[in-house]
From TrEMBL:
PANTHER family: TRNA (CYTIDINE_URIDINE-2'-O-)-METHYLTRANSFERASE TRMJ (PTHR42786:SF2), TRNA/RRNA METHYLTRANSFERASE (PTHR42786)
GO biological process: methylation
Chief location: cytoplasm
Function: Catalyzes the formation of 2'O-methylated cytidine (Cm32) or 2'O-methylated uridine (Um32) at position 32 in tRNA.
Main EC class the enzyme belongs to: transferase
A Pfam cross-reference name: SpoU_methylase
UniProt name for this protein: tRNA (cytidine/uridine-2'-O-)-methyltransferase TrmJ
Organism: Ramlibacter alkalitolerans
Family designation: Belongs to the class IV-like SAM-binding methyltransferase superfamily. RNA methyltransferase TrmH family.
Keywords, comma-separated and alphabetical: Cytoplasm, Methyltransferase, S-adenosyl-L-methionine, Transferase, tRNA processing
Compartment(s): Cytoplasm
Entry superkingdom: Bacteria
Assembly and interaction partners: Homodimer.
GO MF annotations, alphabetized: methyltransferase activity
Length: 240
């Protein structure tokens, strides 16, 4: 699957850098600019700063003179629009449309218009679909890089997403550490008057079961010992 993101006449260097960053976090790196405002936009300081580490995407990106050049080799082209056109490709949400093409389109291009004017009708008409991000009717103005991030995310989702590794469970403290901590607590509980050693009932076995279920880590055992020490110190000061 080949994916290309095409920015038509981008006018802000920062948006180009932010676009590179948006693509990289979603695993894409094919960025093409059509007639950018700045000839050196890919190497400008603001672009690199906003790319925030996605310099490799900028280094691979290229600027071309026409949309025809940008779309060479692409077999499925999606426009991005704020409003549906009366004529042209059907307008749908990214999620709805991309789910239908992820398994059959081999080379997909996403087109984004200029920051000031959006996409021209003639550019929209040559696309297979027009994607409209569902936004608030009261305020639907999306920054260019934000729109790219949303579409890149939806496309990655349609392609199956990235596998999220399961969380790594912290290692539990061993039985000896738990037993030592419980002895420390037993001493502290006696000193503060909570535990009567003459009539302990089943307090300590119950605490043993509680910590067995909790499976505290070595760091947590250290904290619990610190609490026990503080209780003992307070009891000693109170008796002084």
């Amino acid at each position: 699957m080949s994916t290309r993101f095409v920015l038509i006449q981008p006018s802000h260097a920062g948006n180009v850098g932010a676009a590179a960053r948006a693509l990289k976090v979603m695993g894409f790196d094919d960025l093409v600019l059509v007639q950018p405002r700045w000839d050196d936009v890919l190497t400008r300081a603001e672009t690199i700063e906003r790319a925030s580490g996605a310099v490799d995407v900028l280094q691979k990106a290229r600027a071309v003179d026409s949309l025809d050049d940008a779309l060479q080799g692409m077999t499925h082209v999606c426009a991005t629009v704020m409003t549906a056109r009366d004529f042209g490709p059907p307008t749908t949400t990214p999620r709805e449309h991309l789910a239908t093409v992820a398994d059959r389109a081999e080379r997909v291009a996403f087109l984004f218009g200029s920051e000031r004017y959006g996409m021209r009708n003639e550019d929209v008409y040559r696309c297979h679909a027009a994607l409209r991000i569902p936004v608030s009717p009261a305020y639907g103005s999306l920054n260019l890089a934000s729109a790219i991030q949303v579409v890149a995310y939806e496309w990655r989702l349609a392609l199956g997403g990235f596998e999220v590794p399961p969380p790594v469970a912290p290692a539990a403290a061993d039985a000896a550490a738990v037993a030592g901590m419980l002895r420390h607590w037993e001493q502290a509980l006696v000193e503060v008057g909570f535990l009567d050693p003459a009539a302990p009932r089943k307090l300590m076995p119950r605490l043993q079961q509680l910590f067995n279920r909790a499976q505290p880590t070595p760091e947590e055992i250290h904290i619990l010992r610190g609490i026990a020490k503080s209780m003992s110190d307070m009891a000693k000061r109170a008796k002084a």
